[in-house]
Write a structure and sequence with these properties.
This protein is α/β, with parallel strands linked by helices. The protein is about 30% helix and about 20% strand. The radius of gyration is 20 Å and the shape is elongated. The mean pLDDT is about 90. This is tRNA G18 (Ribose-2'-O)-methylase SpoU. Keywords: Methyltransferase, Transferase. It comes from Amycolatopsis viridis.
Length: about 270
């Protein structure tokens, strides 16, 4: 059971895992810091506590810690209770959600493990924006994608902003690095997947046509703006597009992914 610890000392060294989250060069969720996983809000904290990531501590106001009492029943970590004002001084900004949890990172699965148990996977290249990464994981969890593989140039899904935007779904959807890039796409193909590159180019086939063909599919998604590199496009089996109205040629990468995930998951089910 969690140990409830009350403190009103903003300098309490026991709160150092939560300190200065807005200071980029000291942020504990960056690999250059301590590489911790940080969850914000009761929903995300619950998902962290139910995940494979070993919790270290919680920090929150009375009401939020009380709301989490059932989830903390079997979690032997300290839960520090303080005021919103002290929390703001420790964290570096006012936290509307009223509670944080920190955890150590867990070993990532191998890409081949994810492929072996999946029907639909997303493969990302160059998605460097943390909010886009978080939104992609949230969409993947909601729409039946079994796993996410990270190619070159992707942001870390476990950064605090990505975890928050995903509503904690980066802690639920398995992910792994896919290297070397893009030649590792051969491993995906060898595992029985058709690699489909999502692109607006006019010679691509309709996404619905791809989905109707069935089978195991790996959807390849590029960064917002430049999209997929020539090397990634060349390594794919097929180029696919989302048909759009005249005058619109692209969507935000997370929005486009949601449309594609829905079509592919519906075909599998």
């Amino acid at each position: 059971m969690a140990q409830i610890v009350r403190t009103e000392d903003e300098g309490d060294p026991r709160l150092d895992d939560f300190r200065d989250l807005s200071t980029a060069d000291r942020r504990p969720d960056r690999p250059g810091g301590r590489g911790l996983v940080i969850a914000e809000g009761t929903v995300v904290v619950r998902r962290l506590l139910a995940s494979a990531y070993p919790p270290r501590a919680l920090l929150g106001v009375d009401r939020r810690i009380a709301e989490l009492a059932p989830d903390l029943a079997d979690v032997p970590v300290p839960a520090y209770v303080t005021s919103a004002e002290v929390m703001a001084k420790v964290v570096g900004f006012h936290l509307n959600r009223g509670v944080l949890a920190v955890a150590d990172r867990a070993p990532l699965p191998d890409a081949d493990e994810i492929l072996a148990r999946s029907r639909v996977v997303a493969i990302l290249e160059g998605v460097g924006d943390h909010e886009n990464i978080g939104a992609l994981f949230r969409n993947a969890a909601a729409l039946g994608v079994d796993g996410v593989l990270l190619g070159a140039g992707c942001a870390d899904p476990l950064y605090r902003r990505s975890v928050r935007v995903s509503m904690g779904n980066v802690l639920r959807v398995p992910f792994a690095s896919l290297t070397p890039w893009p030649s590792a796409l051969d491993r995906v193909r060898a595992a029985g997947f058709r690699v489909a590159a999502l692109t607006p180019r006019p010679d691509s086939v309709s996404l619905r046509e791809l989905a109707s063909a069935g089978g195991r599919t790996a959807l390849l998604l590029g960064s917002e703006g430049p999209g997929l590199t020539a090397g990634a496009l060349a390594a794919a089996d097929v180029a696919v597009r989302i048909p759009m109205s005249e005058g619109v040629d692209s969507l935000n990468v997370a929005t486009a992914a949601a449309v594609a995930f829905y079509e592919l998951a519906a075909a599998v089910n």
